[in-house]
Amino acid sequence: GFDLAVNYYMPALGSTFSLVAQDIMTSIDGAPVSSRYNFGYALNPGFDFLKGINLTVAIDIVDIFGGLTIFNKMHIGVEAELLGFLYARVGAYQGWLGFGVGIGRILEYANYGIETGLYPGQIEERQHRVSLALSF
């Protein structure tokens, strides 16, 4: 599908606002795919809270106009950057807690739960993700 994203950074507030449109004018085998619109906000004041630790707080609301409850749409988290290359994260996704660690945005591990029931908080399925990224 065709996606379009816009980020607006406000350095004076240490804030980034994002709006994403997913699957714009997309079809599969001639059948239209519903578009989704997501909103995100991140706060990074740009100074160390503790010696060598920089914090970012973020919130995302996915599928703003979709039929899910706001609890299922909202993702919130905190990331601590340690010494400029180690990362630790904690947050909530679909009402379930998750955490992750990373080294230099190259090697990352995440553990989180997703909702597989009919309503938030019914059935959790734990996920593990390991990723390796190469940039050039």
Instruction: Give me the count of strands.
Output: 11
* Low-pLDDT regions: none
> Looking across the biggest beta sheet, what order are the strands in?
1-2-5-6-7-8-9-10-11
> End-to-end span in angstroms?
26 Å
Strand content: over 45%
Net shape? globular
Radius of gyration of CA atoms, rounded to a whole number:
17 Å
Number of discrete helical segments: 1
Mean pLDDT: 87
Question: Can you write the helix and strand succession as a string?
Answer: EEEEEEHEEEEE
Helix % is: under 10%
- Specify the structural class: mainly beta
The biggest sheet amounts to: 9 strands, antiparallel
Question: Can you characterise this structure?
Answer:
With 136 residues, the protein is mainly beta. It contains one helix and eleven strands. It has a nine-stranded antiparallel sheet with strand order 1-2-5-6-7-8-9-10-11. Strands 3-4 form a two-stranded antiparallel ribbon. Strand 10 (107-115) and strand 11 (124-132) form a beta hairpin. The longest helix is centred in the middle third of the chain and has 4 residues, at 70-73.
